[in-house]
Amino acid sequence: MNLSYRISWLIFRLIYSTYFRWRVLNPERVPMIGGVILAANHASFLDPPLIGCAVPRAINFFGRESLFRIPVVGAIIRSWKAVPVDRDGGGARGLRIILDRLLDGGAIILFPEGTRTHDGKLQPARSGIGLTVIKSSAPVVPTRVFGTYEAWSRHMKFPRPYRVTVKYGEPMAFADLRAEARTCSKERLKQIYQQVADEIMLAIAKMEPHPDR
Fold first, then answer.
1. Cα 6–61–176 angle (5° rounding)?
2. Is the confidence at residue 87, as pLDDT, over 60?
3. Residue 130 and residue 125: Cα distance in Å, rounded?
4. pLDDT score, position 89
5. At what angle do helices 128-135 and 91-103 cross, to 10 degrees?
6. Domain assignment of residue 164, given as a range
7. At 83, is the secondary structure helix, strand, or coil?
8. In Å, how far are 46, 120, 127, 151 from 154, measured between CA atoms?
9. Would you say residue 167 lies in a domain?
10. Where does residue 48 fall: left (phi above 0), alpha (psi -120 to 50 degrees), or beta otherwise?
11. Which of 18, 49, 75, 112 has a CA-to-CA distance to 174 between 20 and 30 Å?
12. What is the mean pLDDT of residues 79-100?
C-alpha cells in the first residue's frame, strides 16, 4: 500500500467498524501475494471499499472515467491506481488493464452481476467475468456482502447505520476449463465463459452470514 491508499484504508476501516458495526469472516482465504480475483455480489456503493479494506493488501478498484476528471477526487483515485472504466464501450481496454494488473500480482474486485441489485436479491451472472477468469491464471475468491443493501441501496440518498458483513470463500482455480478453453471451438468458449460465471455466482449464493464451523 502507498501512503494515500493506507490512509484511505484506515479511514474506511474506522467507518465500517463504528457506523456500520462490520463483521469480517475468513479474510485469511484471500492470498496476500500474487494475482487474485475477488468476485462478489453487488448491492451498494458500500461494497467495493468494504471488500477492499477488510484485507491487509492493496486492491485494484474500478472507477468511471468521468471521476478521474474531477479535481481532488481524480487525484485521490489515481493515487490508488484505480482502473478507469468507460461504460460507453471501453470494455476491451478495461480488460487489458485488468489482465495486466493480475499478471503483475495485483488483486482485482469484479462483480459477476455487472451492476447493483434493484431489490436486494442476487442476480444472474454475466459472462464477462468468465472471460476475464479464463484469460488470466489468477485464483478466484468468491466473496459475499450482507447488509449493504439495507444500509445504502440504490433507492436511498444517504447510508444508514445498519450492520454489514463481508465473507470470503475458498479460492476457485478453474484449471480444467482454462485448459479446455485453449483448444475448444468459439461456440464452446462462449459456453465456458458463462459456465465459469455461473459457478462463481453459485459459490457466492451458498455462502451464509456466519463463521464456518
1. 120
2. no
3. 9
4. 42
5. 40
6. 18-205
7. strand
8. 11, 10, 24, 10
9. yes
10. alpha
11. 49
12. 75
